[in-house]
Every structure is written in structure tokens, then in C-alpha cells.
Amino acid sequence: MIIDSCKYENVYLLRIDGGNDSSELLREMSQYAIDNDLATENYLDALLEREQQYPTGIQASLGIAIPHAYQCYTIENTIVVALLNKPVIFKSMGYGKEMEVEVVFMLLLNKEDKQVKVLSELVNFIQNESKLKELFTENGLYSIYETFGKYL
Predict the structure, then answer these.
(1) Average pLDDT, the chain
(2) Taking 80 as the threshold, does the pLDDT of residue 152 lie above it?
(3) What is the pTM of this model?
(4) Does the pLDDT value for residue 113 go beyond 80?
(5) Which residues contact 66 (CB under 8 A, 6 or more apart)?
(6) 31-58: buried (b, 16+ CB within 10 Å) or exposed (e) per residue?
(7) 64-70-71 Cα angle (round to 5)
(8) H or E stretch at 2
(9) Do the beta carbons of residue 64 and residue 91 sit within 8 Å?
(10) For residue range 76-103, what is the model confidence (pLDDT) as tens digits?
């Protein structure tokens, strides 16, 4: 359940209760994107299919997931970040092992060159423990925009 949401420019930050399974969380985040005209009606199915084929969980100082669908399902370039009160189980990238995720970066990008740049910045971002912790402060939304806004 989405507890709180805020937006700065074209970056969204959600506070979500969590604790459910990854499909339910992605369903909730996808519906948020669809309701806010960020993604097409078919986005959820495409996102779930891609996550099943290519899991996106990454273990950093926190469990991270970076789900995304193909570009044709994106209406507006953005990142929707979810901070979870309770971890959700995702499968890890490459290995498919179950892992707990506390932060989800859902990418909505409609150009491949943007996706490469954002993913590169995201790798740097999630390797920086202080940046990840900053997400949970009042500066979290601005930190996301400051890092990724120029690519969206």
C-alpha cells in the first residue's frame, strides 16, 4: 500500500508499506505510473514479464531492485523510487536467488541512450551507501533528481 508520494520535476518518490511479494509491489507501482500518465495501460504486463525473464535484484548496502519494461510502454521519462517499510522478496540479477529488497528504482525511459546513461549513474548511486541512506531523509527526492534529472 502506498503510504505517501511526492514529486519533484519528473522524479517520483513513494513510501510503500511493502512486505508483500514482488509482483504485488510492481503491480502497485505500475498502477501509480499508469494513473499519473507515465506509462501505457500495458506497462504492468510488460514489466512483470521482463522481471520474470531478467530479474533485477541487486545487493548493495541495501537490497535494491531496478525493474523496467521495454521503452514502448513509457509515456514520460521518469524514475519512480519506492522506499519500503518492510522488505519485499525479489530475485537477484544473474543468479535468480531470492533476496530482500528495501528500495525499488522503477525506470520509465523511452530512449535507449537515456537508459544506458541512467543505468550507469544508478550503479554509481547504489554503490554509495551515504546516497542510499539519504533517500530516507527529507532530501531524498532532491538527491534523486540531482543525480538523474539531467537524463530524463
Answers:
(1) 92
(2) no
(3) 0.93
(4) no
(5) 56, 58, 104, 105, 106, 107, 119, 122
(6) ebbbeeebbeeebbebbbebbeeebbbb
(7) 110
(8) strand 2-8
(9) no
(10) 999 999 999 999 999 999 888 999 999 9
